[in-house]
Structure formats: C-alpha cells, structure tokens
Amino acid sequence: MLYLICTPIGNLNDLSLRSINTLKEVGRIYAEDTRVAANLLQHFKISKKSIPFHEHNELDQLLDITNALQEGIDIAVMSDAGAPLISDPGYPLIKQCIELDIDFTVLPGPSSVINAVLLSGISPHQFTFYGFLPKTSTGRKKIAEEIKRSGIPYVFFESAKRLSKTLENFLEILDSNTQISICREMTKEYESIYRGSLQELYGQLIDSRITLLGEFVLVIHSSLKTQITSALDIDFCKPFLDYMSPADASKLIAKITNHSKQDIYRFLISISNSS
Predict the structure, then answer these.
(1) pLDDT digits over 210-251, tens only?
(2) Are 232 and 260 contacting, i.e. CB atoms less than 8 angstroms apart?
(3) Are 175 and 209 in contact (CB under 8 A)?
(4) Would you say 29 and 107 are in contact if contact means Cβ atoms under 8 Å apart?
(5) What is the pTM of this model?
(6) Residue 73 DSSP code
C-alpha cells in the first residue's frame, strides 16, 4: 500500500496520530526534503531515514517505488509541508499506481490552502486554487484578468520577494477595493493574517507593516458587486427599481452605461435584496 501523508505546515504537533503510526509501520519513507523529514521523524521518535523524492528525481524513482509496492512493501510519501501532489511532487507516481492497479490512500491533515481560506474572512463556499503565481508581471496580470472575470475567490502561493510586485500588478487590473487576505507563517509562532482591500494592504506593504519573511498564501476576491459598484453609482441605479423590474432596468442601464446587461442584472438583484 502507498500512503500519501499530509504533513504539518508549521506546527509539528499538527501531524495526525494515524500518520505517526503509519510512518512507524511502513517499510520505506520517501520525502521531498530528507532534512525536513528527519526533523519531523525525530520529533515523534521515529528511528527511520527517508529517501529523496522531489521534482528533480521523481521520474527516476517511479520504477523503484512501484516495484517495491508490487513486492508488498508499504511506502509513505510526504512533502515538505501539507499534501503531496498539491504544488508538490507525486502526481506521476499516482498515475502509475492507477495504471498498475496498485492501492494507495491519503492520510488527511494540514492544508495551507484550507487554512488560508478559513482565516481570510472571504466567503469560503466556492474558490479556485491556482498554486504558485507566475514569476513575470505579464503572467500575473493575466491571472488578475481571470480573477476579475470569475467573480469568485482565488488562492495563491507567493514568495516574500515578489509579494509587493504582485500586489502592484493586481492594482493595475483590479479595483482598489478588491478584498484580499495575506496569510503568513500559518500555525507557527509568528502567524500573521492581514485583511483588507487591495489598496490598503499594498499600502501596509510599502510602509513595511507587513513582514516580508516566511511563506505567504493569498486569498483574493474581486466580487461582481465590487466591480460594478466602482463603475456605477448605487444612487443612480436604485431609482430604476422603483418603476420597473430588475430585468427591464438592467436592459436600460446597460444601454446608458455600456456595461454588461447580465452583470447589471445580478448587481440590481443584490442591492434590492440588501435594501
């Protein structure tokens, strides 16, 4: 059996009891970084060494791992932090296991994505996880356009050295009132969560009120209401609802403003429900 083990994202004590027992029992442990794995194993008094399994050697390791599994050796695979496969090595191995009809399972545990969404204060009911943002400004602006069109929250990983430039790129595309949460060092001693508008948090970053150390997870939501509100005055739209239905009002306002009829209709529904 192959076990995919979700490891702590900061606090070592977040490793599940089931994962601890599995690491003690398996025949081999493969890890993205053997130094990180050694620290975790030592913390739980597990006297085993791990075998390197990272983006530079995972294809070379496939045959050894699948052969061992077919011979009946139980194997655990773990990343540096969080779940294997999610912006980490492991997917080719899973594909190979499926093709060879080798059993595998996931031992659930810490997730920086879920933690960030829950801590953000942004609606968690629907979101898109993108992974690491592109390294170029052009790439990040394309993502900002996607965020703008989607109307649902996006979750990203970003490095400390690019965070300022990323927010700057987003401000070129998104409304300054777009809601964003910046999560730093989650579950660790110096966990910090920054919430506010894109403009507010960019200002905090420029003023050095956000510490540029550690790992960051961003949650950003360019809601339809924010976009339309920034372009249309609510006081302009509301009187239309006194004399006609939202459907008829959206057609007329769309002709006057050149905005999308569908977007205006949803916006009118939202302000009529809140009034």
Answers:
(1) 999 888 999 999 875 555 555 566 777 788 888 888 898 888
(2) no
(3) no
(4) no
(5) 0.78
(6) -
